[in-house]
Amino acid sequence: MRAFERLLSATARRVLAWSGRHAEPSRRPWVDALGGELELVEGGPARLLWALGGLSIVCSTRRTTLTRIWRSLPGPLRIGVFGIALAVVGVVAIVWSNVIVPSHESDDEYTTWYLVGYLVLFAYFGASGFLAAWTGSSIRDAALTGAITAVISIGIALVTFIVIDNLFLDVVMQQPDKANGFAHSGMTSQRDYVNQGNFALPFVLLTVASIGAGCGLFGGLLAHLLGRRCAAAV
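-> structure tokens emitted (234 positions)
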């Protein structure tokens, strides 16, 4: 327990040291004042919480700069930039793993990694809402940013899969899951088999939009909470 307390106290000192180096010159005395009173705070957790005040002083300035840059972007770009960025990465990864270096292993062997991937996606949707709200957008716009991010990124990924399935059908059907599924489907056309679920795309995107909106809402609420803390530190 004492070791844990010492670890938290040391972390608090490092947080304040970092804050002192990155704060604006006019705000550094405030960080120094927090550091001077740190030893008067009892308990490691309380000291770490006290040290977060230094981060609040830093972020109050950085937030203003980031907001100015963000506000200079066109409205549609602000809402869609996170989804577009993720979509580009997704398309490259999909083409690489399905066409350039196709895998010949079953998806069942990567169940844990798929779960991690979903969690990362949800965190990304939440981060898009957080950054939107952090730069001055409303909670509603944060939720909308999360939804648009999810629809653009997942929608483009699904369309990429559809294009690859049809353009590189011979390569795709070498995948164990698709080969086994086709063999037990009773269908006679491989192309019909890979396209049979395309009609559900609108419903999938509706579900994805709901998830993205929820994650964006959470991120937006968190940003507003931290924003009030930063404002209180100014």
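The mean pLDDT is 81.
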